[in-house]
Amino acid sequence: MERKVEMVLAIFVLLSWGSGFIEAGLQMGFYSSSCPQAEMVVRAEVNMALRNDVGFAAGLVRMQFHDCFVRGCDGSVLLDSTPASKAEKDSPVNNPSLRGFEVIDRAKARLEAACKGTVSCADILAFAARDSIAFTGGFGYPVLGGRRDGRVSILSETFSNLPSPNSNLSQLTESFANKGFSQDEMVTLSVRHDGMGKTTLLLHDYEDEMTEEFDLKIWVCVSINFDDCWRNS
Ligand code: HEM
């Protein structure tokens, strides 16, 4: 439980108020007069989606991380590719593994109907990540509002800004330092999540010399297709 609290507080402090992502003009209750229902609508959409598939909670937290590491928390991960330019969303880093876009789309559609052109997608994503953590038993925490949506999203920037599952410690440390995070903050944010736990750490175990003793070693990449096979079997 303590660890969960630490993780939640870290996300709260780091992604919402903290270091690399502080932006001028963010404030509590940013929409209190322009669109008072903003946070309530996002929470309702998140809760509805999570009641159907609680896995969206992980997807939305990861989506905010992937949004914030590329061009800041500007919703650039949500933009679609154009014929002239592939967007972050279509990078193999995000496609097909990033999930929850439809939750943000639904919240945005409702908020456009209620308060046209007011609530940014970047804020919706920040609220949704917070609400996902609360829904799954973590702490609720206040999120500042007022992020502006970017208009630029470039696939190749995901490679240069997001850490790879094959990164070693110094590469990971550098990647987080580039965004203003200390190594302690990096570990707090990452250590209990699927990428480090399931992918990176397991890969280290898999490659450990002790496994040379095994008769058979198999590395299975869990993808959406794998899930489909599992469901159909
Ligand atoms: C330290 C560097 C990190 C690496 C290399 C990394 C990499 C990965 C990878 C490879 C996956 C599996 C994606 C798949 O399903 O194919 C994953 C999942 C995930 N990551 Fe990370 N990650 C890192 C840091 C973080 C941070 C800082 C957060 C959030 C604060 C985060 C949140 C998540 C979540 C919630 C999932 C599960 C997503 C889902 O089930 O939909 N990761 N990560």
TrEMBL record:
It comes from the Eukaryota. One of its GO terms (molecular function) is metal ion binding. The record marks 62 as: Transition state stabilizer. The active site is at 66 (proton acceptor). Ca(2+) binds at residues 67, 70, 72, 74, 76, 88. Gene3D superfamilies: 1.10.520.10. The keyword Oxidoreductase applies. This is Peroxidase 1. It comes from Dendrobium chrysotoxum.
